[in-house]
Design brief:
- This protein has 141 residues and is mainly alpha-helical.
- 60% of the residues lie in helices and 0% in strands.
- 0% of the residues are buried.
Length: 141
C-alpha cells in the first residue's frame, strides 16, 4: 500500500468517525432537536442571555417548512461542490496539457535533423528536382 493510499484511508476513517460517533454516543439525546443548525442554537443562547433582544433585521425569504429549508441548503452545497470540482478539473487539465506540450517539444540540439546544413540540403534537393529522403515528423502520440 502506497503512502498516499494510507493517508486517504486514514482520512476516510476520520470522516466516518466524525459522522458515526455523535450518533453512537447519543450526544444530542437530551435536546428536543439534537441536530439543529448553529443558527437555532445561537438564537436560543441569545434569548437565554438577553430576553429583551430584538434582531436588527429579518431574513429576505423565510421558507415555509424545515424540509424546504434543508432542500435549499443541500442545493447550495451541491452548487458549491460543482463549482469547486469544475475549477479543480480545469486546473488539472491545464496542467496536464502544459506537461504534454512540454514533453512533445524537442530539446534543442538532440533531434535527428540537427546538423549544420539539414534545412539547406532539403531545400536544395527540392529546388534542384533531385529526389530526397522523406523526413519523418517523429513518433505520434
Amino acid at each position: 500500500m502506497t503512502r498516499n493510499a494510507k493517508i486517504n484511508a486514514l482520512l476516510l476513517l476520520a470522516v466516518a468517525a466524525l459522522a458515526v460517533l455523535p450518533l453512537a454516543l447519543g450526544l444530542g439525546d437530551h435536546k428536543e432537536e439534537p441536530f439543529a443548525g448553529a443558527d437555532g442554537e445561537a438564537e436560543t443562547a441569545i434569548t437565554e442571555l438577553e430576553p429583551d433582544y430584538e434582531p436588527w433585521f429579518s431574513p429576505l425569504y423565510e421558507p415555509p417548512s424545515g424540509e424546504i429549508e434543508s432542500g435549499l441548503f443541500a442545493l447550495q452545497a451541491a452548487v458549491g461542490a460543482g463549482v469547486l470540482a469544475y475549477y479543480f478539473g480545469v486546473r488539472r487539465g491545464r496542467r496536464q496539457g502544459a506537461e504534454q506540450a512540454r514533453r512533445q517539444q524537442p530539446v534543442p540540439g538532440t533531434g535527428p535533423d540537427t546538423g549544420p546544413d539539414t534545412e539547406s540540403d532539403a531545400d536544395s534537393d527540392a529546388a534542384s528536382g533531385r529526389p530526397g529522403e522523406a523526413v519523418s515528423p517523429g513518433p505520434r502520440s
